[in-house]
Specification:
Two copies of one chain form a homodimer. Chain A is an alpha/beta fold. In chain A, 37% of the residues lie in helices and 24% in strands. At the A-B interface, helix 2 and helix 15 of A face helix 2 and helix 14 of B.
């Protein structure tokens, strides 16, 4: 290993000396090779997932993750590493939730359930009521108060398996999660349960964010997700017997906001220090798994982008920042704080890239930009072909960075293969073993390559 | 479910009636939607993997798989389903192998080991000897007989992590497996052990095929693979102490050839019945896992291609066959037999497609054909873009079908994402749980779409 490390060091020195005469093809090859043979992202993820674990905003895990990320960035010899304070919501799950379906008195089936983030608790002894199954908010209106009042609304619109891009299927269902309680409360429902957003039939409930909007506190009703297998079971049982009752108990609550931080590291640009290129992911995660894909992967990839630039001997012309956002999952406070501060300081963010779609094989990027800028990007597509990166499309970049949009800058989201993402998303199996080292490292390299190109060529003015 | 099935049936009838007026875009959409919402491949794979299990040529599993595949194909209402007899080698692993590293007398580390397919056994009491580590056949020559005679040769050339296409890394190492024993025997080695072909560091030995070439039976030496973790350990221990000994015991043997079968199903072409389009995978597997990726996936995908064509109301102009080859892993007898019979009967195989690279997200195809034919194929590339299929390259198609090559026909191999393939390849973890339903079904749809296009447009003559 010692000899191997010496060789790598030697190669790294060689690279440093010769970067200026290298073609972009050469530099990308160095970046990919370094990432796959000498990457740090997997090791960092191992620590984040297995030593720290879940990192819900305001939790001890989130606090530890802030300290860890800062200390690791400090080891990289960046020009600056700092914490950006931000107040974040603190929601706690409390005692593990419990639920069952009661087909007749004394005959029950236990159900896998989890509260949605932001939900209120049930009464201490739980809620038991009849169930009304719907697939849309329109169905609530059709049913009306007379059929809903005093019951539990069961949202059971499944993700559409026929859609190729799994996020499209997610987006077509997530309103049930986010607004389900708010909408059902209007008709007098006493609680809502939801089919987990997962294509697979399995036993894992998937949590997620929900909001009561302006609903007064005394009108707020508990909201929880059940596994897809349990959703199928409940639906079948309801077809056989409308009098089936559902019981669940959860003790989650919203505590006072607490102090937390975005973690930021920077390499100062040698020619255009006020042109900022940022790369990031979110440091917080849901609490059920350890957030390895969502978004431990994006965090360690973003950290490794700056390390790889340095290792590859690239001296950025523009200022390159890694930004690890706090509180993406249930508040977006970190993203808001970062954008506000950047604006206040007049920092010109020419390009921002996020990785928040899992640590799977990268397929390309989604770009938020004008046509002229997009054409600039398309000009680089061939450089990525040898790495099997083909997907360059206009579209949304991501929630961590979209507040940074200006007329002429470019935002982008890494687009990994999305087929397995919702097997793990916000569930207890989003753990380190679900991440493949090579897939993660290919993502890191792909991000680094794009950052390198934007740094070298800048963003063309309109 | 009943209502759902009726709707599907209705949709299927509608499709049948209107196929002729549909654009290719429409047909591909139907194919992908059907595969993702109403596919059979995952269910078939579940049976093949979990009810039948491993299917090494000549084993009971292989025999059961032949019977099962035939009976399932018969349910599809194809024009013809039959078994094509072929004699296959029968190698059996015997008692589970056992190995240890002995650093000093009485101080041992157990090692995860498996015989390579085709290897001879060790003596009944095992082999214990000093070890000489090499990374190439050239190193054997440099060391010479004086340093090798009476020892165990340890091939420890790792797969190169820096290569993007993992099969390139595999191809750069597989000579150690295939010819390692033959080459080492020339220098008087008494056995060979090999580093498993796996990028990951883990505890699983990966088997594979090996050959003694013309080596007389009494000169044949045992050959076995050890896990990557064990290879690292052994290498480190050898650096500390050259006198480390390695012990292993295996009782595998080659029995007499036995009768087996390729399984074939056919839809007869309505306009050009003697133009054949075939799609296939191999029904046999190695014996350590249950062969879910290699090549259960290819088998069930190929079967489902014909089912999807029928379900989508496509009436092929050309004869479409599914061919499930026997004995790809250790002999290729099924492929040879099929090619020989096809030639004898003057069947014009215009296009052959195999799936034998795992049931992962499909990225595209590798085509073996002339430039003119390749241009024809490139003309269809845009049709596949909505399904994130971007990879259309010239290259090798695959061992199951390459004997079918003629001057003007086209062979193709499905190219799924390859990053995770060697985590499972020929190891005990190549099991059903490692296959994602959507990824498998996207592969099926991608194959079906290409078969549909070749059937509709034929292969352009030179």
């Amino acid at each position: 290993m010692k000899l191997f490390k010496s060789i790598l060091l030697f190669l790294s020195v060689i690279t440093t000396l010769s970067t200026n005469s290298q073609t972009d093809e050469d530099v990308l090859k160095t970046i990919y090779t370094q990432s796959l043979t000498n990457g740090k992202s997997y090791e960092w993820l191992n620590h984040l997932s297995n030593q720290i674990g879940s990192r819900l905003s305001g939790s001890l895990g989130a606090e530890k993750a802030v300290t860890y990320a800062k200390s690791e960035l400090e080891k990289l010899g960046l020009d600056k590493v700092w914490l950006q304070p931000v107040m974040v919501p603190r929601w706690v799950r409390g005692t593990k939730e419990y639920a069952f379906i009661e087909s007749e008195l004394g005959k029950t089936n236990t159900v896998n359930i989890c509260a949605l983030g932001g939900s209120v608790a049930t009464p201490a002894l739980g809620i038991k009521a009849n169930v009304v199954e719907v697939k849309s908010f329109e169905a609530l209106e059709t049913l009306g108060k007379e059929n809903i009042k005093g019951k539990i609304v069961f949202y059971n619109r499944p993700m559409q398996a026929g859609l190729i891009r799994t996020h499209d299927a997610y987006n077509a269902c997530v309103d049930q999660y986010y607004k389900g309680a708010l909408e059902a409360a209007k008709y007098g429902a006493i609680a809502v349960i939801l089919r987990s957003m997962n294509f697979r039939l399995d036993d894992l409930p998937h949590t997620g964010s929900m909001s009561y909007g302006d609903l007064p506190i005394n009108k707020r009703i508990p909201s929880a997700a059940i596994s897809t297998n349990d959703a199928e079971l409940l639906s079948t049982m309801l077809k056989l017997n409308k009098d089936v009752k559902f019981f669940f108990k959860q003790s989650c609550k919203q505590l006072k906001d607490v102090q937390s931080y975005n973690v930021i590291g920077e390499i100062k640009g040698s020619q255009f220090p006020n042109e900022y290129i940022i790369v990031g992911g979110h440091l917080d995660s849901w609490d059920l798994g350890d957030g390895s894909h969502d978004d431990g992967a994006g965090v360690v990839q973003s950290m490794d982008v700056l390390r790889l630039l340095k290792e590859s001997g690239i001296k950025p012309k523009r200022s390159i920042r890694v930004v690890l956002f706090m509180n993406k999952e249930n508040g977006l406070r970190g993203a808001e704080k970062y954008a506000k501060e950047a604006k206040k300081r007049g920092e010109n963010h020419v390009f921002a890239l996020e990785s928040d779609a899992g640590g799977f094989t990268p397929r390309g990027f989604s770009f938020t930009c004008n046509d002229k800028n997009f054409n600039q990007v398309l000009g680089w597509k061939d450089l990525f072909e040898p790495y099997l990166i083909h997907y360059f499309e206009k579209g949304s970049s991501g929630a961590n960075i979209n507040l940074l949009k200006t007329e002429n800058n470019i935002l982008a989201g890494l687009r990994p293969d999305s087929q397995r993402y919702f097997d793990y998303h916000h569930a207890s199996n989003d753990t380190f073993d679900a991440v493949n080292k090579r897939e993660l490292e290919l993502g890191t390299a792909t991000m680094t390559a794009l950052v390198y190109l934007f740094d070298k060529y800048g963003v063309h003015a309109k």
